[in-house]
User: What shape does this take?
Amino acid sequence: MSTGDGTTPARTSGAPASGPAQGEGARTATLGPRRTPGLVPVTETMRTAERRPAGPGNEPANGPAERAVPEPARTTAVGAFLRLLGSELGLTFRRPRNLVMLAVLAVVPVIVGVALRLFGSGDGEMGGIVQNVVGNSLMLTFVSFSFLVLLLMPVAVSVVAGDSIAGEAGSGTLRYLLAAPAGRTRLLAVKYLNAALYSYAVTAVVALSALATGLILFPAGDVTLLSGTTISLGEGLLRIAVAVGYVGAAMAALAAVALTLSVFTEVAIGAIAGTMVLVIVCQVLRAIPELSAITPYLLPTRFMDFDAVLRSPIDTAALRDGLLTFGAYIVLSGSIAWARFSGKDITS
Amino acid sequence: MTVVTQEAGAPFGAAPPSGDAAIRTRGLTKRFRGGQVAVDTLDLSVPRGSVFGFLGPNGSGKTTTIRMLLGLVTPTAGDYSVLGLPQARALPKVGAVVEGPAFYPYLSGSANLARFDAADPTAPRGTAARRVADALDRVGLSAAAGKRYRNYSLGMRQRLAIAAALLGPRELLVLDEPTNGLDPQGTREVRALVKEIAAEGTTVFVSSHLLAEVEQMCTHAAIMRTGRLVAQGTIASLSAGLAARIRVETPDAAGAARVLAGLGLPDVRAGEREVTAELGGHAPEEVNAALVGEGVAVRGLAVVRPSLEDVFVGLTGEGFDVDG
Ligand SMILES: Nc1ncnc2c1ncn2[C@@H]1O[C@H](COP(=O)(O)OP(=O)(O)O)[C@@H](O)[C@H]1O
Ligand SMILES: [Mg+2]
Assistant: This one.
C-alpha cells in the first residue's frame, strides 16, 4: 500500500480496527456489545453466532446459552440454482402481463375451432386441412399452430425473453441480483431456462386449448393424414406430443435470440421489438426467391416444419434439420450473450 | 508506477492479509468508455470494525468505486480485495445498497426480499422466511411487509433496501448515500441503525456527499474529489493536521488581537467584533486570563475545532460542493 504518498497526506490510520477513535470521547467505539436503546437487534442470534472471533471483550450478552442456529441441510449448488430458477418462474408465471399473453393464445384455437365449425362444413373451398379439422378433432391443434407459430407465439416468447435481462437492468434490480451475488453465468442460465420453459408453456397452452376445443366441437377417431393415410387416435395424440416438442424447441431458440438482445440493452422494449423485427424480416427474406440459398438458415423458416408429423411416415429428416438449426441458434446466441454479459459493466 | 491489472474480483497477493482490512484497494482506476476517468488510482484501506465514511461531492466517483467493489464494474487498472476473500465468497458476507433502492414494483416488500435472498447461493432456503421477517422487523417495515413496493413511500423504499442488505449475517455493510431523499426523521433512523449494526461488529462503509453526516456517524473517513482520494484516516486524525482556533468576541478587537499576538498565537485575524487565532499549544482559559488581565472585555470565547469541510478546503483549496 502506498497510501502515504503524493495526493494523500500521511494520515492513513494506524489505529487498530477495534480501537476507539482517539480524542473523540463522544464518538461511539466501533466494537463492543453496545446497543441503541430501544432498538433490539432481531438478528442478533445469527449475527453473534457467525462472528465468533470478533475480538476480546465482545462476549455476547446471553453467551453460549443461545441456541446455535440449526444449520439446515447444507445449501448445495444445485439446490441454490433450483431455488433461483423457482424464484424466476414464480415471477414469470405470476406476472399478469405474461398470463394475459397465455390467455390470448389459449383463446385463439377456440375462435378458430368455432369458426370452422360454423362456416367450414359447407363446400370445401377452404382446402384440405380445413376438411381435415372438420373431419377430426386432433387436426385443430395443427391448424392452430400454423396460425400462431409465425407471429403471436413469437411475440409472447420475445416479451418474456427480451425483458429478462434488460428489464432488470432498466429497473436497477440487476445490480442487486448480481451483488447478492447471483453470479453472472448462473443468472444468465436461470434466465434462459425460464424463457425456454415459458416457450414450452406457450406451446402447450396452444396445443391443450386446441385439443380440448377440437374434442368438443369435432368427431374423435382415426386421423387422416395429409398423405391420405389413416392413423389411430392414440398415434395422433403421440404426433401432437412430437409437434409440441418441436414447436417448443423452435420458440426456445427464438427465446435465445431475444435473451441475447436483452443482454445488450437496458431498454426491454428494445430487445422485444428487435426480436420481432428479426422474425418479420426473416419472413420477408423467405419470400424472395433470389435468396433461397440462405432461407434454410433463417430461424422462422423452420417454424412451420412441425407439419412433418403429418406425413406418413413422420418426416424425421425435416424434424432433425429443424432441431439442429434450433440447437445451433441456441448455442450461438447463448455464447454471444454469455460473452457480453460476463464482462459487462453494470452501471444502471 | 506499476499497476497490476487483475481479473475483477481476485484478491491481490497470494495470501491476502487476513483480518486487518475489510476493504483494500490498490491503484484502483475506472475509465469509462468515452474517456471519463471516474476513479483515479485509488488506494483505500477500510479497517475492520470501523464505520467508514466515503465522502465526496456528487460525481467524485463514490458509486463507481462501490460498483467495482461489488463486481458490477470491471476496473480499468488496479486491484481490490473485499474481506480478503475471492469475490464469490466475499459477497454473501456483504450487504449493499447501491445508488438507491431498486425493487419489483408489483411484488410486496417481503416477496421482494425473498427474491434477492433466492439469488444468494449461500443463503439457506429453510430459514429464508424467518430472515426476511427479521430484516423487515429490523428496519421497522413489518407492518408493510405484505404491501406492494409500488405503494411504498421513499423512506420505506430506502429502508427496504437496507433490509435487503441485512438478510444474512454480514461482515461488511456497504451503503451508498443511504439517507438520500429521506426527511430528517428518516435520516436519524438510518443513523441509529448504522450505529447499532456497527456495534455488533459489522464494518460499515457508507458513502455520502454530506460532510456533517459523516462527521456524526463515522469513526473513519476518506475524502474523494473528482475520482481522486484526497485524504483518509480516523476522523480525529483527518482534522488533526488542522489547528483548532480560538474565537474571541469583543468590542475591542484591536486590543484583543494585540494580546493574542503577544501570547504568541499564530495567524491572528481581527474582524469588527471578533478576533480569531490558532490556539497552538495554549489552553483557552490561559488566553482568557490574559485578555481579562489586559482589560479587554470578553463577550464570548470559543474553541473552534476544524470540521471535515475545513479539511477538504485546506487540502484542495476549494469549497466542498454542497449542491443536493
Ligand atoms: N456509465 C458511465 N459512463 C460514463 N461516465 C460515467 C458512468 N457512470 C458514472 N460516470 C461518471 O463518473 C463520475 C463519477 O460518478 P459516480 O461514481 O456516480 O460519482 P458519485 O457517486 O460520487 O456521485 C461522474 O463524472 C459520472 O458522470
Ligand atoms: Mg453516487
Remarks:
- Residues B 62-63, 99, 176-177 surround magnesium ion (ligand 2) (CB under 6 Å).
- Residues 151 and 235 of chain A are 29 Å apart (CA to CA).
- The longest strand of chain A covers residues 223-224.
